[in-house]
Amino acid sequence: MVDLLEYQAKELFKQVGIPTLPSQVIAEPRELRQLEIPYPIVVKSQVRASGRGKAGGVRFAENTIDAIAAARIIFNLQILGQFPEVVLAEARYNVQQELFLGIVLDYQRNCPVLLGSIQGGINLDSLLANLQAIPLEEDFFPYQGRKLCRQMGLTGNLIETVSGIITKMYTLFLSKDLDLIEINPLGISPQGEVMALDGRISANDTGIQRHPKLKGLIESEIEPLFWLPLKPKSAKIGIICNSIDLGMASLDLIAPTGITAGCLVIKDNLEDLKQGLQEWQKIPETEVILINILKNQRYSELVVRIIADYLQSLAIPKPKSDERYERPTGIVSRQKIPSIPLTKTPSLVLRLLSQDFEQWQQLLTGLPVYWSEDLESAVTQTISLAQGAKHELADFGSDFGTRS
């Protein structure tokens, strides 16, 4: 899955008629001297990490001097391990109310889900407390957008206005084969006009390949993997996930235990998963790796195969230099060839999207792998293993499928 930056998402919003503010992408602070939009403005860090506002990555400016100063601060501001390559300068908007709108592809339901909250913006607790959802088990029709608006508590002309935005969001979602599209917040002015003040779009690799323009928009921005928040010098628990949100949720559940942990975010290329496992293998004291990857059943199967191949490769039999073995049948007997001793093989806990893990039991039998169906159970298992005895590959005899 690839997350677009805000300015990229808004370029797609414009294509379907979702209103956005005048803005300009800035690669270095001095470009603000040639700014083509009127002040006052907002200067925003363009990173994929959430929580930019609280981290200081969104700043207001009344004039050029203020804007340049804000941009310099933001370019040097690290947010969850990421520095921006560009910032977005955008006109300010007079907001009376902020809403949240979203459409996400639910792989367990196998259908898109409309999401909406009458409380948008950075207060996540309030947003979630008021979140409404409508699964689209059949085709989308505009009345479903109006239904969501009513469930959110909107009245009057706002129902038609906001439901119109939802229809345009679904058009973009369907036409670009997206996994997720969000507007947070959708600002409402005192006059009842609406404006997409921030946007998030996630696209899967398969969908990107079907849309050359979308691929071209994001190709130069894709980061194969990055640490969240920073690469640890040592950690007892390692995390590999395919989105920032999954990584933050995992770290938040581990934090109260006081156990040292770090997170590596990868995109959906399976070569990145191999590299991620190798990266954690190099970090001292790592005893458990939580693999928290959600995509689809087929991808989960490939992840399991990658993990099995990787763990088995750590103990590839290697003959001694002074020994020769006859191979009359072309098969080397494993009993005659000593294995490379393993000094460090972390346990792995899997949390993947699957309804039938037993089908992969043969691949993982005898390997230090456990699995759980939900995040809390997976984290509980991970913590338990991190607090337990150290392991080596030869010591593992537990059956695959161990659940917390």
Q: Could you tell me the radius of gyration in angstroms?
A: 25 Å
Into which percentage range does the β-strand content fall? 15-25%
Euclidean distance between termini CA atoms: 28 Å
Helix content, binned percent: 25-40%
The overall average pLDDT, rounded, is: 82
- Return residue spans where pLDDT drops below 50 for at least 5 consecutive residues: 316-343, 389-404
Largest sheet: 7 strands, antiparallel
Can you tell me the number of structural domains? 3
Shape: globular
**Considering the protein shown, what is the CATH homologous superfamily of the largest domain?**
Succinyl-CoA synthetase domains
SSE map:
Blueprint: E1 2-3, H1 6-16, E2 23-26, E3 41-45, H2 52-55, E4 58-61, H3 64-75, E5 87-91, E6 97-106, E7 111-117, H4 124-129, E8 132-135, H5 142-152, H6 157-175, E9 178-188, E10 194-196, E11 199-203, H7 205-209, H8 212-218, E12 225-228, E13 237-241, H9 244-254, E14 261-266, H10 270-282, E15 288-293, H11 297-313, E16 347-352, H12 361-364, E17 369-371, H13 375-387
Parallel strand pairs: 13-14, 13-15, 15-16, 16-17
Antiparallel strand pairs: 1-11, 2-5, 3-4, 3-5, 6-7, 6-9, 7-8, 9-10, 9-11, 12-14
Task: Explain what you see.
- With 404 residues, the chain is of the alpha+beta class.
- The chain has three domains: 22-91, Dna Ligase, domain 1 (2-Layer Sandwich); 97-220, D-amino Acid Aminotransferase, Chain A, domain 1, CATH 3.30.470.20; 225-316 and 335-395, 3-Layer(aba) Sandwich (Rossmann fold), CATH 3.40.50.
- It is built from 13 helices and 17 strands.
- The strands form three sheets. Strands 1, 6, 7, 8, 9, 10 and 11 form a seven-stranded antiparallel sheet that branches. A six-stranded mixed sheet has the order 12-14-13-15-16-17, with helices on both faces. Strands 2-5-3-4 form a four-stranded antiparallel sheet.
- The chain is globular and about 65 Å long.
- The two termini are 28 Å apart.
